[in-house]
Amino acid sequence: MSQTTDQQRLEDKKDLNRFGYAQELLRSMGGFSNFAISFSVISILTGAVSLYGHGLLYGGPGMMGFGWPLVALFVILVAASMAELASAIPTAGALYHWASLLGNKRWGWYTAWINLIGQIGIVAGIDYSVALFADPLLASVFGYTSNDTTTLIVFAVILLSHGILNHVGIRLVAKFNDISAWYHIIIVAVLVVSLAFFTNSGLKPIDYIFQVGETFSDKPYAFAFLIGLLQAQWTFTGYDASAHTIEETINPRIRAPWGIFTSVAYSFVFGFIMLVFVTLSIQDASAAAGASNAFIYVITEALGGTFGNTILWLVTLAMWFCGLSSITSFSRMMYAFSRDKGMPFSKHWAQISRKFRTPAKAIWLAIILSFVLAAIDYILKLINPENTVGTIVFMTAISVVGLYVAYGIPMLLRLAAQAKGKFQPKHLGPWNLGKYGRFINVLSLLWIIFISVLMVIPPNQNAGYALIGMFVLLILMDFLYYNKHFEGPQAALKTSIKDILQREKELES
């Protein structure tokens, strides 16, 4: 078995060399570990839980019965489209390299920066979610009052712990990711069984989960329901992590695509089961929707103080695992972009720790940028205390738009290249959608356009303003940095897409 694995590593190394890159990162992740990192970043115990109150407030119980499956259906199509490209172009640059090879280096550069914006939002959003749960739980233990300041401090400590562990090494993080995947499944099972058998007032009838027409907001229900989709849409983000760790995965053309696709599929199933039982255990939906943390309120009311708090601590640890994986993905994206001089001071962010073989400086830059985003929102709330949009909603809306626009660009370029005959079936990897690829790509793009608009209109306009500001800075970066420093990915410089994607012929020769 070891000899077979070593041979596969050699083939993977040769494959990566043909894209113009040396094997610098430690290639030790198996198929389950690759799946686990995306499954952990998606983390149904983070997105679906931290934004549970948002979904309930706007869409009522019907948000869980109809909103979750609706979003999951389209996200599975997006994931399949991304998986197909990951199989064709197996480099850690992922979206950035796909766009560069299918379009040109300017398309790649913008894709990388838009993805970076989304990555900042998702890392900040995940770890802030952990802080939102951990801070009140810690406050009840140590007797202090939880507020925005204490939450920000807990957030900083959580980021610090993730930075240290990612710095130490991919083997340790991979083990944590493997544990995380099983831990998520076990905790969902524990939560479901607890609610099924120990809920104080019993469960509501199953048809309650499909009850539509009830909103606790001041918006008309149809519009409120659409706003509430942020809960599910943000949960289903970050599954590009399997592609960003592709250079650390053995047999990546098969395992990384499956990691992308199955992480979304399993998250849908387990997440839906969890949301059904949580929603059926609600005793007072209006009170839950109005609580500062709806999920904590529902679980505490359903299971009681001590038992409920124990379950909440278990959920919080699952969120912590999620944040750990998201830092791994973010840092690999910056590492891949920086080795092509795509960022200012790129030589630093592309450095690999000799001792741990991890992109150490990129890891700590990811930590700093994520904290800065939360600090900006904290300062804005000090300036304008009447701002009612929660920090977590602000961060998650930014991450959804940034990530999904970055997901969509290479899909659009793939369709354009296919129409011109530059991207043909022979260029696909072993994991592909066959004759259905184009149709699925089109549906994926339509969904991305829809949710990108939806996530920045009122009441999420602050996220829209922040994104506009970031895009303005990006355009300035185009003039001040791009033309002088960015040469493009090595693959685009050394060969054409037609040459680089004919893996079978090259390996045989």
TrEMBL record:
Name of the protein this chain belongs to: Amino acid transporter
GO CC annotation, single: membrane
Membrane spanning residue stretches: 35-54, 66-86, 107-131, 151-174, 181-201, 221-239, 260-282, 311-331, 362-380, 392-415, 436-457, 463-482
Location in the cell: Membrane
Membrane topology: Multi-pass membrane protein
Keywords (A to Z) from UniProt: Membrane, Transmembrane, Transmembrane helix, Transport
Pfam families: AA_permease_2
Native organism taxonomy: Bacteria, Bacillati, Bacillota, Bacilli, Bacillales
GO molecular function, one term: transmembrane transporter activity
Signal peptide range: none
Keyword field contains ATP-binding: no
Chief localisation class: membrane
